[in-house]
Design a protein that fits this description.
single chain, alpha+beta, Glutaredoxin, Glutathione S-transferase Yfyf (Class Pi), Chain A, domain 2, 4-stranded mixed β-sheet, 4 strands, binds glutathione
Amino acid sequence: MSQPDLVLYHSWISSASRKVRFCLAEKGLAYKAVKVSLSNFEHHSDWYKKLNPSGVVPALLVDGEPIVESNFINEYLDDRFPSPLLRPTDAHALYDMRLWSKYIDDVCLPAIQKHNWMTNYHPMAREWTDAELEERLAAIPTENRRHVWYRMARDPYTADELETALDILTDMRDRIEARTAAAGWITGSAFSLADINAAPYAKRLEELDPTAFDPDRFPNAGKWWRAVSTRPGFVAAKIENFVEQGQPDYDPDI
Ligand SMILES: N[C@@H](CCC(=O)N[C@@H](CS)C(=O)NCC(=O)O)C(=O)O
């Protein structure tokens, strides 16, 4: 069977996009990457909301059909292209992989977002006039993200909120330290989507706290992070420094 046509609408610095790039690379799948500029609000444009009605990246077109939600995209890829298999076959381990991936999306994403958005979007959004703000908010399809963009413009995250967010990511590291004690991977006995889905968060945590994966203090998590971040798939996915990769002129061929 020939490979379907895959087009990934993504942002280099988006953790959810990074998860999908990592999965595509691990599977050796060829795809076209289309950059969606978040600072130019391309993700809130009508054409993009037809691909992802939530107005967030990523979206993957499979033979022209959009699929969304990075956890589900990665599972879809594993269903459709099972070699190499990236999910455990044991029912309980599979359940655990899904629970972990939901935790990453529900808990770690909003935490990382606080730091990323204060760096990237608050300096721009605070300059908007009330009329500009109203126009921007009107294009955002979900209440949750309207609220976050409002906060970027008028009510930035406080030092306490940023500290709590970092604590959440540090707790993720502690969970990884405990989970990897048995077999070196987050779920079950092999590298899986659980590891892929956590990797962009580990990368960003290490940038915010360079000691986060210190192998002397966190031997299991340190070893795990070295194993994950040196995989050819991780390197091919270009999960790189957030600030450098967030520059408008960063757009290498993938
Ligand atoms: N649950 C979604 C989250 C997607 C998401 O939040 N994407 C972020 C980047 S990591 C985004 O598009 N942010 C821009 C915005 O909300 O305006 C997924 O996993 O695909």
